[in-house]
Design goal:
The complex is a heterodimer of chains A (484) and B (140). With 484 residues, chain A is of the alpha+beta class. Chain A folds into two domains: 2-97, no CATH class; 105-330 and 355-483, tRNA-splicing ligase RtcB, CATH 3.90.1860. Chain A has 15 helices and 19 strands. In chain A, strands 7, 8, 9, 11, 15, 16, 18 and 19 form an eight-stranded mixed sheet that branches. The longest helix of chain A has 36 residues, at 282-317. Chain A is globular and about 60 Å long. Chain B has one domain (2-139): Archease domain (Archease, Possible Chaperone, Chain: A, domain 1). Chain B is built from three helices and eight strands, in the order ββαβαββαβββ. In chain B, a hairpin with a 4-residue loop joins β1 (2-7) and β2 (12-18). Chain B is globular. In chain B, strands 1, 2, 6, 7 and 8 form a five-stranded antiparallel sheet that branches. Chain B has a three-stranded antiparallel sheet with strand order 3-5-4, with helices on one face. With 140 residues, chain B is of the alpha+beta class. Chain B has helices spanning 21-36, 57-74, 106-109; strands at residues 2-7, 12-18, 46-54, 77-89, 92-103, 117-118, 124-128, 131-139. Chain B starts with a strand and ends with a strand. The chains are: A alpha+beta (484), B alpha+beta (140). Chain A binds chain B through residues 46-47, 73-74, 76-77, 80, 99-101, 136-139, 192, 195-200, 205-207, 245, 248-249, 251-252, 255-256, 259-260, 272-273, 275, 410-417, 441-442, 444-445, 448, 484, and chain B through 5, 7-12, 36-37, 54-55, 59, 62-63, 66, 69-70, 72-74, 104-106, 109-114, 116-123, 137, 139-140.
């Protein structure tokens, strides 16, 4: 079956699938040879990321290439670790290219504390964070918003919660889109979605979402690390979560609307999961307004959690909120209009990133001012107990991936298999023996999220670096893990 | 009627199986809630009625499960028992269903996993070997 995918190796970690059949553009895959072998092996099965990236390359108005990053794995029609850009006039917006967890992402905050300074209070800190940050299915946030207030939050994003006392004004510069996605229209979001969010603002969620206290184990790009305010042994905090129930409901609502739009506009999609609408159509525009609203919800959510983290640090270490500044907050499920050079021509395209972050290299004015010379950071989450990474965008990445970066490891073993293979309590002890404190609402969830259930994040990052699309800045190791 | 799960790398594929399509839909719903909470922990004391429609029976399954899923935040309810009636009028599939459950209480229900959405992946509603199946992949 692998033969139907005649991948040509361009360099050590870059491959091209030339446009054949229904493909309008080639597919470009960034991966090492072993990863490619795994991708090829699964093409015969029901789930194939290679088939998905090929299908995406066949969608109307796609420009450049359909892109698979080193963490590529099968998603819903659109691969996770996938990037695709579409012409704003002739292209489509694909609901599977954003997914159910709109603007799910990672936020990194730094402190001036060092590893040795917190070791005797690590358990206390973990307990405090566990009590303070609502997590797990059925948990509710402190901020309960009436519908009119939800509308304001969806329009303004992180700015809304900062204005209500959750977060610092100076955080905004260090959030992608300054914490407010342009084009948000709360009117494009169903009342049902807003009702679901009523008690969900400032909650972490469950599954692969987490809050980690980490230390900087190694700095690999000193100039960028200095710009980001990162140094060896420094204590940092990572928050991985998204737009919660509101984003989930937008995804669900628009799956139905896009299915109807696909038929209405006579768009031929290779599979049902790739339902889409022309970007320029009323349906497409409405969906993008809803996505921007969902993205704002995610920015606001992470801002509130960041505020709660600062409160915990104040209680345990006596730090002031401004002593725990934001390094960056960036999403990895989004569709956004951006300026890119395509075939030598500067144009505005709609970039879908599903399980991929924006990773703009040096010189782009979308980055916070202090980061412009080196490019903005991208945040790569590890699995529980493994390393996380701070990367940055590169010029090669701007040219080859629409300025996109890897987002994580990706699952290797299904949740059910993981739950049979691992035991939550054993994982907790194993982490404890390595000096990592775990606080989790569900021990079954811990088993499902076992580090062994994920692919190796080190290899994902190494492949991105070898291909030149992302540059490794720093490696982070967890000290305390809070899970839903 | 019963439900089963099939392995899927990142998510959960749920399959409801029944003598009728209605039973298969009810079983798929039970399978979906069992991903989140063990069904025997849920007391079916409160009833919620649902009416949804879709252009095709497969899409009706997504509407049914997606609507039930939303209730865990909107009304705070999780469910363990389901009853479904399906008919087709003017080329549209319609469903009227009931779900019985109670308020989600994390301390008592000890939730396992959160389902984010009901996807079009693996979507099938069909008669197989004298049984009806209703299946799809849940995003978790």
């Amino acid at each position: 079956m692998g033969d139907e995918f005649r991948l040509e190796r361009v360099s050590e970690a870059e491959w091209i699938l030339p446009a054949t059949g229904a493909m309008r553009v080639p597919a470009r895959i960034f991966a090492d040879a072993e990863m490619i072998a795994v991708l090829r092996a699964e093409t015969g099965g029901e789930w194939s990321a290679l088939r998905q990236v090929r299908n995406v390359a066949a969608l109307p108005g796609i420009v450049g290439a359909a892109i698979g990053l080193p963490d590529i794995h099968p998603g819903y029609g659109f691969p996770i670790g996938g990037v695709a850009a579409f012409d704003r006039n002739d292209g489509v917006v694909v609901v599977g290219g954003v997914g159910f967890d709109i603007n799910c992402g990672v936020r990194l905050m730094r402190t001036s504390l060092t590893r040795s300074a917190i070791s005797d209070r690590l358990d206390r800190l973990a307990d405090d964070l566990y009590r303070t940050v609502p997590a797990g299915l059925g948990s509710t946030g402190k901020l309960k918003l009436a519908l009119a207030e939800i509308d304001r939050l969806l329009a303004a994003g992180a700015k809304y919660v900062i204005d209500h006392g959750y977060g610092l004004e100076q955080d905004l510069e260090f959030i992608e889109e300054q914490g407010t996605m342009p084009g948000a229209d709360p009117g494009a979001v169903s009342v049902r979605a807003k009702e679901r969010q009523f008690r969900q603002v400032g909650t972490l969620g469950a599954g692969n979402h987490y809050l980690e206290v980490q230390y900087v184990e190694e700095v690999l790009d000193p100039a960028a690390a200095t710009a980001y305010g990162l140094q060896r042994d420094q204590i940092v905090i990572s928050i991985h979560t998204g737009s919660r129930a509101l984003g989930h409901q937008i995804g669900q609502d628009y799956l139905t609307e896009m299915e109807a739009a696909t038929r209405k506009y006579g768009i031929e999609v290779p599979e049902l999961e790739l339902v889409c609408a022309p970007i320029a159509s009323p349906e497409g525009r409405r969906y993008l307004s809803a996505v921007a609203s969902g993205a704002n919800c995610a920015f606001a959510n992470r801002e509130v959690i960041g505020h709660l983290v600062r409160e915990s640090f104040t209680r345990v270490f006596g730090t002031r909120p401004e002593e725990v500044p934001l390094v960056y907050d960036i999403g990895h499920n989004n569709a956004k209009f951006e300026r890119h050079v395509v075939a030598g021509e500067a144009r505005t395209v709609l970039v879908h990133r599903k399980g991929s972050t924006r990773a703009f290299g040096p010189g782009r004015d979308e980055a916070p001012v202090p980061y412009r010379e080196v490019g903005h950071p991208t945040l790569v989450g590890g699995s529980m107990g493994t390393a996380s990474y701070v990367l940055r965008g590169t010029e090669v990445g701007m040219e080859k991936t629409f300025g996109s970066g890897v987002h994580g490891a990706g699952r290797a073993v299904s949740r059910r298999k993981a739950a049979k293979r691992y035991f939550g309590r054993e994982i907790e002890q194993e982490l404890r023996s390595r000096g990592i404190v775990l606080r989790a609402h569900s021990m079954r969830g811990v088993a499902e999220e076992a580090p062994g259930a994920y692919k190796d994040v080190e290899r994902v990052v190494a492949a991105a670096q070898t291909a030149g699309i992302n540059q490794v800045v720093a490696r982070l190791r967890p000290l305390a893990v809070i899970k839903g | 009627m019963r439900f089963e799960y099939r392995d899927h790398a990142a998510d959960v594929e749920v399959r409801g199986i029944g003598d009728t399509v209605e039973e298969a839909f009810a079983a798929a719903a039970a399978g979906m809630f069992n991903v989140m909470v063990d069904l025997d922990r849920i007391v079916p004391q409160q009833r919620l009625t649902i009416a949804v429609s879709a252009p095709r029976i497969e899409l009706l399954l997504v509407e049914w499960l997606g609507t039930l899923l939303g209730e865990k935040e909107i009304s705070g309810l999780i469910f363990s028992r389901f009853a479904v009636e399906i008919d087709t009028v003017a080329g549209k599939s319609r469903l009227r269903g009931s779900a019985w459950g109670e308020q989600l209480d994390p301390a008592r229900h000890r939730p396992k996993l959160e389902v984010k959405g009901v996807s079009y992946a693996g979507l099938r509603v069909e008669n197989q070997d004298e049984k009806w199946i209703a299946q799809c992949v849940l995003d978790t």
